[in-house]
Amino acid sequence: LSSCTSAAEKEMGGAEQREKQYRAHRGFGDRRGGVISARTYFYADEAKCDQHMETFLHCIDASGGSSKDGFSAIKLTALGRPQFLLQFSEVLVKWRRFFHQMAAEQGQAGRAALEMKLEAEKLQEALAKLGIATKAESQHWFTGENLGVSGTVDLLDWNSLIDSRTKLSKLLLVPNMQTRQLEPLLSRFTEEEDLQMKRMLQRMDTLAKRATEKGVRLMVDAEQSYFQPAISRLTLEMQRRFNRDRAVIFNTYQCYLKEAYDNVTVDVELSRREGWHFGTKLVRGAYMEQERERAAQIGYEDPINPTYEKTNEMYHRCLDYILEEIKHSRKASVMVASHNEDTVKFTLRRMMELGIHPSEKKVCFGQLLGMCDQITFPLGQAGFPVYKYVPYGPVQEVLPYLSRRAQENRGFMQRANRERDLLWREFKRRLLTGSLFS
Fold this sequence. Notes:
Helix content is 49%, strand content 11%. It contains 15 helices and eleven strands. The protein has helices at 6-9, 46-66, 82-105, 120-129, 135-139, 155-160, 191-214, 228-242, 260-274, 288-298, 308-329, 341-354, 373-381, 395-408, 412-433; strands at 71-74, 118-119, 152-153, 173-176, 181-184, 217-220, 249-254, 278-283, 332-337, 363-368, 386-389. It has a seven-stranded parallel sheet. A two-stranded antiparallel sheet has the order 2-3. Strand 4 and strand 5 form a beta hairpin. It is globular, with a radius of gyration of 23 Å. The N and C termini lie far apart (55 Å). Residues 1-18, 26-30 and 164-171 have low confidence and may be disordered.
């Protein structure tokens, strides 16, 4: 089998024109290197993707048959061609960066993403000056139901201009602010690439429909930062379709990323405007060592927060924002996927302060099977929805996964010792009170 990106390594034509972070690189073709905890899928051909989809369907069926309101996790690199994810991620990042550059031109540098509002008339003048479109040509861009009504354009308005519901392969030009030259935003896909993209979307649609039928919620796992913008955008499209009445599709946000809070707040705001239910799993992140090594070797900014403490701050900041949204609208749901006791305590305290009751099932917790039972069991006994993440598959594939998770959780043995001490104390308490078998 060839790895997810190694097939793309053969397609380096024109790669030098692409941003470093979103180029395929031979040295990182096998994405398992430096990855401790995450499952990495391989792309061999379309048939392999269909096999992955069938496996996911069996998992959804099993989850639906074994529990109410269960979850099933999927990875999008298992369902389609990663080169498409690289290309689409670059498009989304370039388009968003262009918005921020325009905001800086209008004196709004340094503001939070959702606080930036471009004056539509000045924006049209800038687009004309840069040679992207005449004022007459760009005028109809900002005359939709919501665009331009207030005379300003925010990031969500801007994103809607390249909404994936429009034809993605339409050639758009944006300026490279360093060279001041116009560059294509998106290279045209070949006919075969278009087919591969459509098949990927069809597989996602099949899984989402089966999950809805079975009463299972579908969690789309996060992956490397150079795939993640596309993964999040495609997941968002599924949320728009399937989260009208409840949160069926859950996106995953990695809080070790410097841009995590902006990503969360922008997507929550979109769910508010469009009226669907926001569903998310919050994790700290699983690709830190590989991400940092790749950024250093290839020469782009490290996307990861500088310290573990900064990642903790980011996690709690994102979590608090979602909990506030639950309080105000009850149209958001979050899985706190963490083995960190401080994070669990923070969540419980904020739920109490905000009046979010466990029975609402808007907040749930997740830990790995066999790890941190001293967190999982008390939460369950107290009435909180709590889930164990269950790996499955051939023994030779699952055991290495579990060993990597133990390695990732470097404090695992200390927690195991603590769990043993707690069990021993409870045993002695029951023995002394004569309630050992009650």
